[in-house]
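Hi V.,

You were right to ask for the full record rather than a summary. Here it is.
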Amino acid sequence: MNATPTTPPIDGAALLDEVEAFHRRFNIFPREAAYVAVALWDAHAHLMDCFDSTARLAFLSPEPGSGKSRALEIVETLVPRSLTTVNSSANALFRLVDAPDGRPTILFDEIDTVFGPKAGDNEPVRGFLNSGYRRSGKMHRCVGDGANQTVQPFSSFCAVAMAGLGSLPDTILTRSVIIRMRKRAPNEKVEPYRQRLHEKEGFALRDQLAEWADSVRDTVKDAWPEMPDGINDRPADVWEPLLAVADAAGGQWPKRARAACVELVHAAQDNDDASLGVRLLTDLRDSVFCGEDRLPTAVILECLLAMDDAPWADLDDKPLNSRGLAKILGQYVTPANKPIKPRGIRTSSGTPKGYYAEDLTDAWARYCPPSPPRSATSATSATPQVSGSESVADSAADIRHTAPDSATQLFSVAS
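Predicted structure:
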């Protein structure tokens, strides 16, 4: 009697490698750790019944066109019972979660329309997202007709991925794995995503993830993954299910997952004033630095405040100062993928804080429009009443080349 052939078990590590490679085809993430985190998040959505908590996944960027929606579109093909929405009410969401046909994976695109400055009151949605990251999360509503109403609890526990401009309320950020998306640089290429062609490939990986999840469910349910040093409290709640998935997969994934956990937890930071940031970057490139390799903060501020057609002299009824400058620039990163921060600049009379052009080059390439050509007429004009960026740049040049003592004095006043 012939033995029935058995299907070999799915190699979890190899499957996660394929999921990661699928994301890499269509997205440029800002750091390697992001690919690890997103692949693990896709897999964890298939094992929601094993966990006490779930990480929200947040693709955020300061500007449109940074690949956020595309990242969410790829995730959609890989997770179970995906449900994409833009502006659903809290009542609709928790009823979807508590529906008899199974817990969905909710994908919230354009989340800035829910929590942005013009979104209005969306506290119920915030409450849904906050409570639903824990298995015990419930929302209570009255159900029934007229006087025959009873209070019924609805579960809000489900996996949620979001994409949007700017930032999110702090209560949601602390429950999230945050991927700070950036515009692709000119040398960064991805494969065009064609839904009719590539969706089937994602669905095939989704089905394999579901099969693999079934094979490790008992193992994951009883897992208590070891946290990296320094990861505790809320970050530990967020990363515990992802590390449990990595441990179940084996191979290099446990090591990569813990490295990604540390990197992304430490890199998490708020992002505000996105469009203002691009204006600042452009003004710094075209009207302030203009070929200089470094400038003290005080000199930069004086140049910016001298621009008649710019907002820097009147931000929230007060001029831009060194703290505001650092806050806006801090949402962008250097070529080494670290936040742009002021550094010491050595002069003959001290070491004032300032900024280096080399730290700004990556942000300039990604976010700024092409530099406007400087005409010979504007560059050599002797007319003192010329307006516009060229005349500002010329006057800024005078400020940039003030004596070091003056720059140091300006810095001490502006700081």
